């Protein structure tokens, strides 16, 4: 059909078209209707996804699907005790997910099994698969030649219901790697460098495709690290071409038959010669130096050689309070081995970490194997605490007690995100992201301005010494130790006789009521709830951490709506003026008051609104509390889709300067909904309190199917209409 060489991502994505012959394919323009092979859901988003699937009335999922319990385990005193506590506190939610999985044919990975993305890499990802996951770091699977895309729960419901899944045809950004990794430079430094080049929105609407001779110097799990953090540049996903490193990993994880099949079709699992990319980045791995990114945003990139001076210039605290390694981004066997290699050198010189130090294994298999092979002991002896096989501090599940809230401090992590207050709910924490081996070195040195490539440490006997570059095996010499069996298969006989109960008095779970349909006219005199200033991620819109426990209860979780967003009127957070009473209150409280008084509302925002996590609660909550429309300069991909799925209107200023015309007490009308059509802008009338008004155009990216979602009140409502 296309009659041209294809990129690898095009081969895989277009290879999953619902109707290849009838599909219009134009990068960056048309919507593709796709048939993914598999769905994966982490427990915090699976609750809402399964509640929506229950609402659909369907008896079984149409594609292989799994639930992974990794988000609800708080890091507090150590792995085993934290896990036991989580099982007790979250018993109601785990029972719901296990029983819903059994009834509807969904596999269930129990708490303690590990982080969803590591489990997918070890079990479900393979070259050429198209997998969607209800977590923004699903692209981790690209390290195994997969197209793995993060989505909201409503998208997962479509696929589980057997409905074609829609994705705007992605552009393709090529990243050509030359040279090879060596010394202290790691796969993490590749994506830290790319993030610095492309920024947090440079990958929006695109798949990032790595290629070139440098690829072969990166391990399979290292490629996964790079793809995982592609979420931080807004990319739809990232992918590497099939090679011998992937083959070795497949064989080591018990999938030699898939490796043999991939070998037979290797020409299909790499880009065609002469394929064209929409843009290109080139990185010479021979010249790449270790990087550290932050604070407060993952695209603020610094070579390690520069960070000390930059920190002093900006007043960032140099003392490293805590070093944290692991997470879905960097918890492979190789990562743990390289970190242990650094720690062993310190121990041999009589040193321990000056900073607190935590280790998060990515899966039960990794935990058991690094324990067997001695890495856990080394990391523990140097001062580390091994946490549960779960997300933990990376997503704010951290009961941190060494600093007070508001106390300025620095932490370094091998995680992927470092938004304000993300890890520990302290907005004064300066979080920096680096490779696990750099984090380990900084935890030992206790200071941000330590560059292990050139700086010396002082041994217990007073002698000066330099750390040697880390070295470790890519994969264990023996087979992986699977550890405890933590997987529950759906029953072979089906689940039609099983019950899934949700107590009407539960504070954790709540069955969903359908949202109201579009009334048929324009949206008149919407009150501005809040005009948001600057960066507004899904963490700002629907915070995680302690709020994760309400992810299955829409009304309770809605009490965190936009409490982290900065109000342009007063530079405050969670403090807005109630235009009906004249009093100031929290954002959710004012929204509830407006809804109770029949007043619909709108949010106005800045660039890349909704970047970060895939959590659809950031779209469900505004809809639940009476919101109709979100008007911003630009959206992050997943959040824009999530808003459409819930019957909201995500609109963008045709002229971004019109953002400045809007005042916090304005009333806004959205005109043109009777003739709402793809590619046709809507108009708005903005009434100011002084009697004047402004009129301008608002763009949208709705296609015909998505307009039907809006008219029906939500995508789920439309699905029921079509049954």
UniProtKB/TrEMBL annotation:
Manganese listed as a keyword: no
EC number: 4.2.1.3
Domain Aconitase/3-isopropylmalate dehydratase large subunit alpha/beta/alpha: 10-446
Protein name in UniProt: Aconitate hydratase, mitochondrial
Localization of this protein: Mitochondrion
Annotated ranges, domain Aconitase A/isopropylmalate dehydratase small subunit swivel: 527-655
Keywords: 4Fe-4S, Iron, Iron-sulfur, Lyase, Metal-binding, Mitochondrion, Transit peptide, Tricarboxylic acid cycle
Gene3D superfamilies xref list: Aconitase, Domain 2 (3.40.1060.10), Aconitase, domain 3 (3.30.499.10), Aconitase, domain 4 (3.20.19.10)
Required co-factors: [4Fe-4S] cluster
Gene coding for it: ACO2
């Amino acid at each position: 059909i296309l009659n041209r060489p294809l990129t690898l991502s095009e081969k895989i994505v277009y290879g999953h078209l619902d109707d290849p012959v009838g599909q219009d394919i134009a990068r960056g323009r048309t919507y593709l209707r796709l048939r993914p092979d598999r769905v994966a859901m982490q427990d915090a988003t699976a609750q809402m996804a399964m509640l929506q699937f229950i609402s659909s009335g369907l008896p079984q999922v149409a594609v292989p699907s799994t639930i992974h319990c990794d988000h609800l385990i708080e890091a507090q005193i150590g792995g085993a005790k934290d896990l036991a506590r989580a099982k007790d506190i979250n018993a109601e939610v785990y029972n719901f997910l296990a029983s819903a999985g059994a009834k509807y044919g969904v596999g269930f990975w129990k708490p303690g099994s590990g982080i969803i993305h590591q489990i997918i890499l070890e079990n479900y990802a393979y070259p050429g698969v198209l997998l969607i996951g209800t977590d923004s770091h699903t692209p981790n699977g690209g390290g195994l030649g997969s197209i793995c895309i993060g989505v909201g729960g409503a998208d997962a419901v479509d696929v589980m219901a057997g409905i074609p899944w829609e994705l705007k045809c992605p552009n393709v950004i090529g990243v050509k790697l030359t040279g090879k990794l060596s010394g202290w430079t790691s796969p993490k430094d590749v994506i830290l460098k790319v993030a610095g080049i492309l920024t947090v929105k440079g990958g929006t609407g695109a798949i990032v495709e790595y290629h070139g001779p440098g690829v072969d110097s990166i391990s399979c799990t290292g490629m996964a690290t790079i793809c995982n953090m592609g979420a931080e540049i807004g990319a739809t996903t990232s992918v590497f071409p099939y090679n011998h490193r992937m083959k070795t990993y497949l064989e080591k994880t018990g999938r030699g038959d898939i490796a043999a099949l991939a070998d037979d079709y290797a020409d299909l699992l790499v880009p065609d010669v002469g394929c064209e990319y929409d843009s290109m980045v080139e990185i010479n791995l021979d010249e790449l130096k270790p990087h550290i990114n932050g604070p407060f945003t993952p695209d603020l990139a610094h070579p390690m050689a520069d960070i000390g001076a930059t920190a002093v210039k900006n007043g960032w605290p140099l003392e490293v309070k805590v070093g944290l390694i692991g997470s879905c981004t960097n918890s492979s066997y190789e990562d743990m081995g390289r970190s242990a290699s650094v720690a062993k050198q310190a121990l041999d010189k009589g040193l321990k970490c000056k900073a607190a130090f935590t280790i998060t294994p990515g899966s039960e298999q990794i935990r058991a194997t690094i324990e067997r092979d001695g890495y856990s002991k080394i990391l523990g002896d140097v001062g580390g605490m091994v946490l549960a096989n779960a997300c933990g501090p990376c997503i704010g599940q951290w009961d941190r007690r060494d600093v007070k809230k508001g106390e300025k401090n620095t932490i370094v992590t091998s995680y992927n995100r470092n938004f304000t207050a993300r890890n520990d709910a302290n907005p004064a924490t300066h979080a920096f992201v680096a490779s696990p081996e750099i984090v380990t070195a900084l935890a030992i040195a206790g200071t941000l301005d330590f560059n292990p490539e050139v700086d010396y440490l002082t041994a217990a006997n007073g002698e000066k010494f330099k750390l040697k570059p880390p070295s470790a095996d890519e994969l264990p010499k023996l087979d992986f130790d699977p550890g405890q069996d933590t997987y529950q298969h759906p029953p072979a006989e089906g689940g039609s006789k099983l019950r899934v109960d949700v107590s009407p008095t539960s504070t954790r779970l709540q069955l969903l009521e359908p949202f109201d349909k579009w009334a048929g006219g324009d949206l008149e005199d919407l009150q501005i709830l809040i005009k948001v200033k600057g960066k507004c991620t899904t963490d700002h819109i629907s915070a995680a951490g302690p709020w994760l426990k309400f992810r299955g209860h829409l009304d309770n979780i809605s009490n965190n709506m936009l409490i982290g967003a900065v109000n342009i009127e007063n530079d405050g957070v969670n403090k807005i003026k109630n235009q009906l009473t004249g009093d100031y209150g929290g954002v959710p409280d004012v929204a509830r008051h407006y809804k109770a008084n029949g007043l619909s509302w709108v949010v106005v925002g800045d660039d890349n609104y909704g970047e970060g996590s895939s959590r659809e609660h950031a779209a469900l909550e505004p809809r639940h509390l009476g919101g109709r429309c979100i008007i911003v300069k630009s959206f992050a991909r997943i959040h824009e889709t999530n808003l459409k799925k819930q019957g909201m209107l995500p609109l963008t200023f045709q002229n971004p300067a019109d953002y400045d015309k809007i005042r916090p007490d304005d009333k806004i009308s959205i005109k043109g909904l009777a003739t709402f059509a793809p590619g046709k802008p809507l108009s708005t009338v903005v009434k100011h309190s002084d009697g004047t008004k402004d009129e301008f155009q608002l763009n949208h990216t709705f296609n015909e199917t998505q307009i039907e979602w809006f008219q029906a009140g939500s995508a789920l409502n439309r699905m029921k209409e079509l049954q």
